[in-house]
Amino acid sequence: MRLLARLPGVGEKTAMRFALHLITDAALARELGASLVELPARIGPCERCGNLAELSADGQVRCSICRDTRRDPTLLCVVAKIQDLLAIERSGAMRGRYFVLGKLLSPLDGIGPEELPLRSLVAIIRSEAVTEAIIATPPSVDGEATALYIARELSGLGVRTTRIASGIPHGGDLEFADQITLGRALEGRRRIGE
Ligand SMILES: [Zn+2]
User: Fold this and answer.
1) For 43, phi and psi rounded to 5 degrees?
2) How far is the CA of 49 from the centre of ligand 1 (A)?
């Protein structure tokens, strides 16, 4: 019960409902337990982009989007977190691939530039056919600061850096934006940096 209630979005009432159900369905409880034990060994961050990936037979940890050869290799969409990637995927407006930062610059929380995985991002841009980096960080103070910082860091790499258009309210969360708004924000992206 206490463990279930520690999951995001699961309050005490829901945890109670889960627990009561699992008591009556021992087979489900066993199956769930076994698959949870395996979870960290089978699923991890994609080595290339940081999205969730399943360990494949060849030992590579690449997500399905990075593996998908039909994706446009010239477009790279930079997002703050995996939930934002999933929201943009649902909008269907992104034909390229992604890069998940994992965090945003936040001077108030003591998160400085050295904590962003900029080196991996630059390595992808240098070694792949990326011509446009679309910065899709949220329209918050931290999101804007991160976008400007990345645009500066990418200038001189010969890549066009764009920022998704507003339409998502300031301080809003990409994760909870509807698909049409997200699609429009991507289509209306503008160039930032040099
Ligand atoms: Zn990936």
Assistant:
1) -125, 135
2) 4
